[in-house]
């Protein structure tokens, strides 16, 4: 799922924009509405990660360009679309790397055509990541950085190239969501990223960072088959 933030201090116009966005289907998304853009920034400070911003410029208390600069501090590459009443800030939009600049009232056909493309790219990028929630807040982790996921009692440890993340959860949930992302359940306590499997010998899987993972006997056949399939697809 991707998260779209709409910031416009005019509640009526915000609702109109939301209604248009909701005409987009086939992509799973959630819309977050803010009549005060500072509430959007507060949500980010609390760990929220957005995949697209739709932002007015002329707001009573805030300038949309200034808000965009703040958003860029935490979301440097996230698509940012200005929807405003005047063209005078169009050049300033380039300073914050705005993806599009639309004038009100919206040309719905053009807007939806462009937004579909932008959200499709955001959705594809989103599928390369997983977002977890733990004591540190929300964290987005690149799937290709994960070596393996380990279940310990009621907690989950996600082992990545740079650090480990701990959270409350069930490994079965990760197994289901990562089924088509080259992850395989090799043991009741381990879910392994096939990208990093260096060797399988008897009941031991060795990863290319040297770590060894226990392989269950009843999961051995499927693990070997999936590894061979992965290698064939990526040669």
UniProtKB/TrEMBL annotation:
Keywords: DNA-binding, Phosphoprotein. The modification 4-aspartylphosphate is found at residue 56. SUPFAM superfamilies: CheY-like (SSF52172). SMART domains: LytTR, REC. Residues 3-119 form the Response regulatory domain. Transmembrane segments: none annotated. Coiled coil: none annotated. InterPro entries: CheY-like_superfamily, LytR-like, LytTR_DNA-bd_dom, Sig_transdc_resp-reg_receiver. The keyword Phosphoprotein applies. Residues 130-229 form the HTH LytTR-type domain. One of its GO terms (molecular function) is DNA binding. CDD domains: REC. It comes from the Bacteria. PANTHER family: STAGE 0 SPORULATION PROTEIN A HOMOLOG, TRANSCRIPTIONAL REGULATOR-RELATED. This is LytTR family DNA-binding domain-containing protein. It comes from Dielma fastidiosa.
């Amino acid at each position: 799922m991707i998260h779209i933030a709409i910031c416009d201090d005019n509640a009526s116009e915000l609702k109109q924009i939301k209604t248009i966005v909701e005409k987009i289907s086939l992509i799973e998304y959630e819309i977050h509405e803010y009549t005060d853009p500072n509430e959007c920034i507060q949500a980010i400070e609390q760990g929220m990660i957005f995949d697209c911003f739709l932002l007015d410029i002329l707001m009573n208390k805030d300038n949309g360009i200034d808000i965009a600069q703040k958003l860029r501090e935490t979301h440097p590459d996230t698509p940012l679309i200005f929807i405003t009443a005047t063209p005078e800030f169009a050049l300033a939009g380039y300073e914050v790397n705005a993806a599009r600049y639309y004038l009100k009232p919206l040309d719905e056909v053009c807007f939806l055509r462009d937004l579909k493309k932008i959200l499709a790219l955001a959705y594809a990028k989103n599928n390369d990541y997983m977002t977890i929630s733990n004591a540190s807040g929300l964290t987005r982790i690149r799937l290709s950085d994960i070596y393996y996921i380990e279940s310990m009692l009621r907690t989950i440890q996600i082992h990545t190239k740079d650090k480990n993340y701990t959270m409350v959860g069930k490994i079965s949930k990760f197994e289901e969501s990562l089924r088509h992302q080259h992850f395989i359940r090799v043991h009741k306590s381990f879910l392994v990223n096939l990208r990093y499997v260096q060797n399988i010998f008897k009941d031991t899987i060795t990863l290319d960072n040297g770590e060894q993972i226990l392989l269950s006997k009843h999961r051995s056949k499927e693990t070997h088959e999936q590894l061979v399939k992965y290698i064939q697809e990526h040669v």
